[in-house]
Design brief:
11 helices, mainly alpha, 77% helix, single chain
Length: 171
């Protein structure tokens, strides 16, 4: 039974994300998701309580998607490149989702129904360590404390993402 639920979870999540990207989050119903995977609504509600749960499930895979890039991260020529790879992996996720879906995800975050920003903040310790090494090696010449600069950089990235979403994916 557990394997079936896991398989159904992935089926529903994959189908829903495809529909969300194609039609927009608000324009997709649970019934459409069920039709796409040819399973009853009861199967959907056995693994998710709402469409919003699918977004939360999707965002929890951020770490797993980063792990796919681990070989590039390890083989990067320096710590500045590693910082770039971390930032780029989050931007790629946002870009792949598109502004409509990102808007829905940010809405969840603002209503405290998602822990996306908490997941992003989980990388801060790595970023701080990498930035300190960049400063020590002279790659980054900003003398500010890495503990202050990294949260500032993350807030800056969030504001750019917000602006991008507000402009429907363009600048």
């Amino acid at each position: 039974m557990k394997e079936t639920n896991s398989r159904n979870t992935d089926l529903f999540a994959t189908a829903a994300m495809e529909l969300f990207k194609a039609k927009g989050f608000d324009r997709v119903t649970v019934s459409e998701i069920c039709q796409k995977v040819n399973l009853p609504r009861s199967s959907f509600y056995a693994v998710f309580s709402s469409k919003e749960d699918i977004l939360s499930y999707h965002m929890k895979s951020v770490k797993l998607r980063f792990e796919d890039n681990m070989p590039d991260f390890i083989s990067a020529p320096n710590d500045f490149e590693r910082i770039w790879l971390l930032g780029n992996s989050f931007l790629k996720i946002a870009e792949d989702a598109g502004p409509d879906l990102d808007r829905a995800i940010l809405h969840l975050e603002m209503n405290r129904k998602s822990d996306l920003f908490k997941q992003v903040a989980a990388f801060n310790d790595w970023l701080i360590l990498l930035l300190k090494r960049c400063q020590k090696d002279g790659i980054v010449r900003n003398p500010g404390r890495a503990e202050d600069l990294i949260p500032l950089q993350v807030h800056f990235a969030k504001s750019i993402l917000f602006d991008w979403i507000c402009q429907d994916g363009s600048f």
